From TrEMBL, chains A, B, C, D:
<feature type="domain" description="HTH tetR-type">
    <location>
        <begin position="18"/>
        <end position="78"/>
    </location>
</feature>
<dbReference type="GO" id="GO:0003700">
    <property type="term" value="F:DNA-binding transcription factor activity"/>
</dbReference>
<keyword id="KW-0804">Transcription</keyword>
<dbReference type="InterPro" id="IPR050109">
    <property type="entry name" value="HTH-type_TetR-like_transc_reg"/>
</dbReference>
<dbReference type="InterPro" id="IPR009057">
    <property type="entry name" value="Homeodomain-like_sf"/>
</dbReference>
<feature type="DNA-binding region" description="H-T-H motif">
    <location>
        <begin position="41"/>
        <end position="60"/>
    </location>
</feature>
<dbReference type="InterPro" id="IPR001647">
    <property type="entry name" value="HTH_TetR"/>
</dbReference>
<protein>
    <submittedName>
        <fullName>TetR family transcriptional regulator</fullName>
    </submittedName>
</protein>
<dbReference type="GO" id="GO:0000976">
    <property type="term" value="F:transcription cis-regulatory region binding"/>
</dbReference>
<keyword id="KW-0238">DNA-binding</keyword>
<dbReference type="Pfam" id="PF16859">
    <property type="entry name" value="TetR_C_11"/>
</dbReference>
<dbReference type="Pfam" id="PF00440">
    <property type="entry name" value="TetR_N"/>
</dbReference>
<dbReference type="InterPro" id="IPR011075">
    <property type="entry name" value="TetR_C"/>
</dbReference>
<dbReference type="InterPro" id="IPR036271">
    <property type="entry name" value="Tet_transcr_reg_TetR-rel_C_sf"/>
</dbReference>
<keyword id="KW-0805">Transcription regulation</keyword>
Amino acid sequence: MATQKSKQPAPDATRRSEKSRRAIYDAALDLVAEVGYPRTTVEGIAARAGVGKQTIYRWWSSKAEVLLEAFLDLSEQAAQQAAPGQAYAIPDTGDLAADLKAVLRMTVDQLKDPRFEAPSRALAAEGVVNEQVGRVFVAKLLEPSLQLYVDRVRAAQEAGQVRPEVDPRIALELWVSPLAQRWLQYTGPISYDYTDTLVDYALHGLAPR
Amino acid sequence: MATQKSKQPAPDATRRSEKSRRAIYDAALDLVAEVGYPRTTVEGIAARAGVGKQTIYRWWSSKAEVLLEAFLDLSEQAAQQAAPGQAYAIPDTGDLAADLKAVLRMTVDQLKDPRFEAPSRALAAEGVVNEQVGRVFVAKLLEPSLQLYVDRVRAAQEAGQVRPEVDPRIALELWVSPLAQRWLQYTGPISYDYTDTLVDYALHGLAPR
Amino acid sequence: MATQKSKQPAPDATRRSEKSRRAIYDAALDLVAEVGYPRTTVEGIAARAGVGKQTIYRWWSSKAEVLLEAFLDLSEQAAQQAAPGQAYAIPDTGDLAADLKAVLRMTVDQLKDPRFEAPSRALAAEGVVNEQVGRVFVAKLLEPSLQLYVDRVRAAQEAGQVRPEVDPRIALELWVSPLAQRWLQYTGPISYDYTDTLVDYALHGLAPR
Amino acid sequence: MATQKSKQPAPDATRRSEKSRRAIYDAALDLVAEVGYPRTTVEGIAARAGVGKQTIYRWWSSKAEVLLEAFLDLSEQAAQQAAPGQAYAIPDTGDLAADLKAVLRMTVDQLKDPRFEAPSRALAAEGVVNEQVGRVFVAKLLEPSLQLYVDRVRAAQEAGQVRPEVDPRIALELWVSPLAQRWLQYTGPISYDYTDTLVDYALHGLAPR
DNA sequence: CGTTAAGCGAGACGGTACGTCATGTCTTAAC
DNA sequence: GTTAAGACATGACGTACCGTCTCGCTTAACG
């Protein structure tokens, strides 16, 4: 590859301290949970992690990036714990409505888990205003989850429970986006009833049949 | 509503300089459009407005609040210009789908208008992470617009075009939230086709009829 | 008829509020005594005096001037109380040394009176760095006191107790200045013994006779 | 002496930038000379020195302290230049009066040297009102000079030219303090004649012999 | 004796500087 | 050669006062 004449003389990743990386992730997540994203600082993360500031700047370019990776890491760990060694998928009992409702109820619970709430809210906010972060956030965290819905809807189409001309990628937004917006923007309360209703409206439409 | 508990002995609003207020609004909106929200500073707003910093801090407590009011003011002006002296409403031609599609196409255009995009994105982001700002943003800007959909859906219910047991406040989220999320989080492109599709899916459901 | 549009349109002294002037003097002296000169502000004086800031700026041009006049006023009052209706003078018992020692002992006491110490120290300091204030301070406060020594030394010359070629204005500095410097600059302690010694040295010289 | 009780965790002096320190001294002295002490600001010193404000606040706690050290440094340099590697002393020709007159004439010149006048006047003023600064100013700058007079007077006592019971520390104030007061407080002009007269009066007294 | 123009209290205003905090870069010593 | 530590230049923060400028409201002199 071309040798960079960049500011950083291209750190050698093989020598990287794994212990520091972990400590930085933990410190970042803890601080965001404790004092909120805006009052979390690179200096604070370094101090809490027992690490020099330069060690952070060597490997990341902003606190948003640090938090993004830290949260990615957290999510992977959580996924590993939930279903070790296997890909996560939406159950397929043959009843699309029931399956969607079940998954959405789990999502409602997760959105209220404080361990997840603070950092994901922070990242979402940063992503709104910082397109680069936003795209990574979506690509690495959001899309993989949405893809599961795509798969499930496609299965339902094959089973004749969803009209064949429906675009699954758009379909899933009928329940995912309303929930996301209520959570992100405080536009309304979040409950099992609410998500159940969304699924019903989405599947059967508003118009009388 | 609630009385202030601030340190300052409550400035006398009757003596407030209208000229300064306007200049601050303009400077705030311009700066957000030019350099983005994070790099917009209170100091910068003051300098651009030709105003002392204290004049800003006397009347607002953060740059988020300044921008919120500035944007509110801008919206009111825009509304006045669009439809002077009358309340805005969604047209009712008798065809719900057509009416919704028409309005959503206008929304798509507005979301791409740079004069609106920068500040509203900034405020949305701030609102995600700062609940107080978020709630004001929703109450003052979002809800009034959403209420128009509630009214239109209710009319459709009376006309027998929407099932009577449907909750209009939830119904509208089937098209509003997907659009909002794509715009806010860069989860997908925004187009007339897309919003048209949303309306169709929402009204007729995914399931075969 | 058309008065100047100069900075100050020359305020009409006859309409001046005596009550405000007194309140300002009191507030200024109190504040200097309580929080020290540097932390005394025009705003603070106005607030404590229950007076608008403009009322201060109408009649004085700086806090130094305010304090200078306040202290002048205080001194006059004190002088009136000490010796109502008559000019103050150094006693002339015929014994120059004794007379000087007596007066200097009184000066020592006065220098330690907190009511006088704070403002006079403040004014002296301001005068060091602000020649205009310094000259007024000297002319209005210091010189009149020094003149009393000039008179007394001249009387001693006529009585043959001081050499005729001695310049009384310089002579008095032999005891006044050392005391002043110790007080102003903390170059040494101040006591009756010290001032007594100064008088002896000054009158009889250091050289053996 | 006393340990610090500051908030900052005690900066590491070994890492201190010598270049910055010098630049700060120079900037401080220049600014005081150019615009006067009251209009010299920490911000201005930092800007002129090409230094961050924090670098000043890290090592000093006020502009008075900065100037004090800057002036101390200047004095040491000047002393080094004048008499490299040796202690300064008042000459002893055997004629006390002549020696004192000679030294005082040099002092008169120095007091009129603008390079010295502005900062020393500023520090003296600050010291009048700020006892801590005053005591350092006296201990570090004034007393060492005065001690030279003490030594010379003591030598004169041993030579029988000054009465043995005279306290040299007080004796020197007979000429030093008058000169100091005239300079500090503008109580009179300063000239060779004046200082010569002071020495004569001090040595021989005012009273006829 | 009522008019009216000044001084007055109050305080908002455009500014300057404060002292603090965090940024991102750089240097040093320890490993 | 990465690391912890932390000094550095930069620049924004939010506060305190500056000195100027309106506001109504006394209040005293005059017409």
